[in-house]
Give the backbone structure.
Amino acid sequence: MADPVFTMKGVTKVYDTGGAKVHALAGVDLELPGGELAVLLGPSGSGKSTLLNILGGLDHVTDGRVWFRDLELTAMRDRELTRYRRDHVGFIFQFYNLVPSLTARENVQLVTDVARDPMPAAEALDSKTGIQVLEALHQINRDFGTATVVITHNADIQKIAHRVIFFQDGRISRIQENTERLAPADISW
Ligand code: ADP
Ligand code: MG
């Protein structure tokens, strides 16, 4: 495997909401190489969003270490994480995950506001279907060699991945390598 873009070692995340502690991540080791499109699958509450938030510099680990190339995210203060997000991270949120009190355009604006070279909000809104979003991700992944991670509830989308990473109770339960991949246009919705 080429030098990983992301490396996670012994990552745990505990949410302490004042009552019971929730172990959202319970010891995750993972390497994500450049050029890879990984799909995260697993039941609701298994830790997928928590992992993505940590990789994206939106949240802190409780324990363990995380690197983006040779930058250690777990050693960064918030100001450095902000710069890391601007320079190196792209997010695409599904609309139903966005702020409900804002319009669709305001929600897209919110996402593009955190990027250094944002697309105009109207351009992002033109991509109406999930297939178009996936095709764009697919193309960026192929042309720029990004490490791309997709969370989905559509199990068919795993067919476009190089690797499918299954989550269960805050842990990686299984990793599946796809020897054959589908193009986004060939996925059924
Ligand atoms: P998934 O994305 O796989 O549905 P999450 O990463 O969102 O899983 O959640 C993992 C666990 O952490 C769940 O039990 C969830 O309720 C809990 N959790 C997530 N975010 C928070 C938070 N901000 N405060 C408290 N608990 C949280
Ligand atoms: Mg989630």
Remarks:
- The first strand starts at residue 4 and ends at 16.
